[in-house]
Design brief:
This protein has 79 residues and is of the alpha+beta class. It has a domain at 34-68. 25% of the residues lie in helices and 13% in strands. It has 1 helix and 4 strands; from the N terminus they run αββββ. The chain has a two-stranded antiparallel sheet. Strands 3-4 form a two-stranded antiparallel ribbon.
């Protein structure tokens, strides 16, 4: 491992806080962009941005997913 050089002069408090603030702002922006939730205009349920609504199946005002189909889930495999 390479050793780091020791600082020759003391760093100002404003410089330290400025560096920390920059890190804080970047982290805040990253957290804001992780999960954006919108409300569906048709059923008023919460949904992720840029995705079809899981309850009614609409996206941008048109029907994308067919929610009328009843899918039977297989829970056990018959031998």
């Amino acid at each position: 491992m390479a050793k780091r050089p020791t600082p020759k002069k003391q760093q100002a408090n404003s410089q330290s806080s400025r560096r920390y603030k920059d890190f804080q702002n970047k982290a805040r922006k990253r957290l804001l962009n992780t999960a954006r939730l919108n409300t569906c205009p048709k059923c008023k349920e919460a949904k992720l941005q840029h995705t079809a609504c899981p309850t009614c199946g609409e996206y941008k005002g048109r029907q994308v997913l067919n929610m009328d189909k009843k899918v039977d889930k297989i829970t056990k495999v018959k031998a």
